[in-house]
Design a protein that fits this description.
Blueprint (H helix, E strand, L loop, with lengths): L1 E3 L5 H8 L8 H13 L3 E7 L3 E9 L4 E9 L8 H12 L4 E4 L4 H9 L11
Parallel strand pairs: 4-5
Antiparallel strand pairs: 1-2, 2-3, 3-4
Length: about 120
């Protein structure tokens, strides 16, 4: 299930974010974490079953749209559908908004949509 990020989960969140290709540099990673912690339009969620195994971060663009900025799953838990479940849970949580990927997350989200596992995106082109 998706849970909202809290400061107590900072090390876990940074570890998961560091698997993103553009978040390898420590300074960049720290800037990203600060963005999620200080900007209300940036929301970070963790995926928890027994343990925290994934992370998904979004930017609320406007009242109608949010953009997925980050999706990351612990490598030892990949290929179990966690990423797809995070995207679906996010769409359920923000059912009144169109959920779209950014350039970094587009290929994953499109692959999920092609597999027919995501709700259709509202208002996307």
């Amino acid at each position: 299930m998706l849970i909202r990020y809290k400061k107590a989960f900072e090390k876990i969140a940074m570890g998961l974010l560091s698997f993103m290709p553009n978040e390898k540099d420590l300074k960049k990673l720290q800037q990203t974490m600060k963005q999620y912690e200080t900007d209300d339009s940036w929301q970070l969620f963790l995926w928890k079953d027994e343990d925290i195994t994934g992370l998904i971060g979004v930017q609320i663009i406007n009242e109608e749209t949010l953009e997925i900025q980050h999706i990351s799953v612990n490598p030892s838990h990949r290929h179990q559908g966690i990423g797809k479940r995070m995207v679906c849970a996010l769409q359920d949580l923000y059912s009144n908004k169109a959920v779209s990927p950014n350039a970094e997350t587009a290929s994953f989200v499109e692959k999920c949509a092609a597999a027919g596992e995501l709700a259709s995106e509202k208002g996307s082109d």
